[in-house]
Amino acid sequence: MRLRSLVLALCLLPCIDASGLASTTPAEHAADVYATREMAAAPLNGNLPDYSLPPAQLAQARHLASLRLRLHFGAEAWAILQLILLLALGVIAWMRDTAVRLTRHRWLQAYIFLLLFLLARALLNLPLSLYGHHLGLHYGLSIQPWPSWFADFGKGLILEWLIGGLLLLLLFALIRRTPGRWWLVFWIAAVPIVLTGLYLSPILVDPLFDHFEPLALHHPDLAAQLEHMGVPASRQFLMKASAKVTTPNAYVTGLANSKRIVVWDTSLAPGQSPSPEVLWMVGHECGHYVLRHVLKGTLLTLAGLLPLLYLCYRFLTWAIRRFGARWRIPSPADWGALAIILLAASILSAMSEPVSNTISRQIEHHADIYGEEAIHGLVTAPQLAVKNACDSDGLRALDDPNPSPWVEFWIYNHPSTGRRAAFGSAYNPWAPGMKPKYFKK
Fold this sequence. Notes:
Layout (H helix, E strand, L loop, with lengths): L1 H10 L14 H16 L13 H34 L2 H12 L3 H33 L7 H32 L4 H24 L6 E3 H4 L1 H9 L7 E4 L10 E4 L6 E5 L11 H15 L2 H35 L9 H38 L7 H16 L7 H7 L5 H10 L15
Parallel strand pairs: 2-4
Antiparallel strand pairs: 1-2, 3-4
């Protein structure tokens, strides 16, 4: 009973403020009210006073948003349906039989079964993946040639196979040895594994897909500003994103001494000092860096993983009892049970998507506030810098100015560009009677 109570409590964790930051300030509340009213007064998918697109680009943004919405939910539904089909048609059982027939060594069986499984899913998902890249090329958001795209696709598949095989061996060793508690023991093992992966990813994985250099080599002025905001020069990197995309971006990744800020070269003009808009963008990332959002988000994800694994365990037990004979998967220790576990995870992930995205939007909102406060004194008008950044970046990315509230709630992991622009335009913690959220002095 105590164990079930713990799982239930952890299920409620996503409802808690994930950022662990200060409560809403009066200036933040006023800007939130302003942004909400501005979006409510404007037509859906139409321009806002603080973020608008030219007529031709607005039509493109609307069409692209509609396509992305269909692609998003279509991919989620297809991910669930394909697992059901693979199980019902006996394909998963055939993969298991093939792996067992080829070798008696369990570690080889695991890798053979996983290879067949990943190849099947990759082929089933390939049409949607191809269409997604086609959209990026068609709308000018991507310039990555198809050979390069397929190379990245292949590298991702190989990494998933190599790392996934180790996790598969661990998972099924625990299922065999602790059949009633494997979900708990696997979660305990997953904590150091995930944290190690977070640490190693920017060092070993990211360079397989993109080229990185120290930011100070090409943009010393921006590197100096980032140091002023609290990020050491050794933690600043420039990514050559222009080989693949046209849109601007920056992000924070890593853990401990692998923690870093990465700025895409598509965000910067060579040989020029950083604009106020760029300063706000990197100030936003400084917010993630200083406020340790990556670590906090990872720990929250790990907390949510425990109830997810428990529910997968319950689903696996029920599914084998109900469909095991039909699917030819007799026990949870059978390699084919992986497909049932992933089916449960896919269903649960789709159902919890609005919760996780709400938390993500909240974290991004705090980083927006930090970035606007961080550039106060560095630029003459922080509010104008935010608005101009949303205008220029939104135009390049063809962001929908005013999406439907339910669409933003369900699938947006950042506040919509229109909401960010309206909030930033109205946020003024330096007005009389107000005070900043993070920079008190």
